[in-house]
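Annex B. Sample input.
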Amino acid sequence: MTCLICKQGETSPGRTSVTMQRGTCTVIFKGVPADICENCGEYFVEESVTRELLCRAEEAARKGAEVEILPYAA
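Annex B, continued. Sample output.
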């Protein structure tokens, strides 16, 4: 698909890192499947993947993590 951000590049399947922050908690997920723009590097994650990342980030925040780096495993 054509990138929704730069409107110049095409996206293709790949893996990326996603960083989520809330308050003092930062969670980094590595190897997240996404469609990535060849031009600007913007990534688009499917709704089901986003939902999972949000749940896992919420769990890390509840545990009191300041910084947590997790592999994506689905």
